[in-house]
Amino acid sequence: RRGVPAAVNTRWNSTLRQVKAVLQCDHLKLGHVLEKAGHKHLLFTLREWNQELLEILKPFGEATELTQGETVVLSLNHHLEILKSQVSFLMGLVKSLQASLKKRFLGIFINVKMAQSQTGSTAPFSDPVYLKAAALDPAFSLMWVEHHVLASPEHKEQVAQRVKELILEDAAKTSQAETHVDKPEDSAAVEEEEGLFAAYRKRQKKNVGASPALQLSHYFDISEGQSALLFWAMNMRSLPSLFRVAVRVLAVPASSAPVERVFSHGGIILRPNRAQMNDELLANLIFCKCNSS
């Protein structure tokens, strides 16, 4: 016996789970039950009873769950491109989903040379922060360029090089900002306190850290699909320049779902019978609720 989960109007992936549960039932037995219950109009035809819909939408459901928890865009496009030669009944759905992806995330497609830029308007998601965030997440690194950028090898190389340049530019700006904040050291005082060769030791200590370019090369060598939080917690000292960039770009939310969830919690907490609650108490209760897990 299997249950069929109810769908939630505001969560499309709950409907996908419902369809999946229905298609796991026996076609003939389900038809017999529906006919016996007087719902003959709900019987599935053989054309409707196929797994193509699930195969097409499965990665979209996975992407939705990932973004709700907190640049699966190119991998979804690659998935649809592969399905074009495999589907028999739902080619229209595949093409519509692919067109919708390119329209919604046009800026990303332009940045990876999979679409032409449009004059006179700013394409959505054209900010390079999305490319930097994907590259500085060790779960993706630059592997997405090789696997999901549908372009020539020369274009892929250009995209990878451009992403590296963007990260190094950010790292250089961060380093310059910190240099201005640091106080200059008095070399005479150092020599008095530490002896004749103090200047040599001090200079050697300053130059221990590798340059941002070497750090970036080392990062690509050691990133193997690890969790971003654990990876950067373990490598924040060995990759200091990249760590400062990663902290900033990985903090950009992948979607508006987490923010919308905060507002939902606020609406649940501030009920009509608690209308006299002050701002500070409301903010603290929402903070505790959103961080309880």
Overview of this protein structure:
The chain is mostly helical. 63% of the residues lie in helices and 0% in strands. The protein is built from 16 helices and no strands. The longest helix is centred in the middle third of the chain and has 29 residues, at 153-181. It starts with 11 loop residues before the first helix and ends with a helix. 16% of the residues are buried. Residues 185-191 and 202-208 have low confidence and may be disordered.
Write the layout of secondary structure elements.
Elements: H1 12-23, H2 27-36, H3 52-69, H4 72-83, H5 91-104, H6 106-111, H7 129-135, H8 143-148, H9 153-181, H10 187-194, H11 198-206, H12 212-222, H13 228-235, H14 240-249, H15 257-269, H16 279-290
Helix content: 55-70%
Output the structural class. Answer: mainly alpha
**How many β-strand runs?**
0
Number of helices: 16
Task: State the separation between the terminal residues, measured CA to CA.
Answer: 33 Å
Order of helices and strands: HHHHHHHHHHHHHHHH
Largest sheet: none
Unreliably modeled segments = 185-191, 202-208
| Portion in strands | under 5%
Q: Mean of the pLDDT scores?
A: 81
Instruction: Specify the overall morphology.
Output: globular
Radius of gyration: 27 Å
Write a brief caption for the model.
With 293 residues, the chain is mostly helical. Helices cover 63% and strands 0% of the residues.
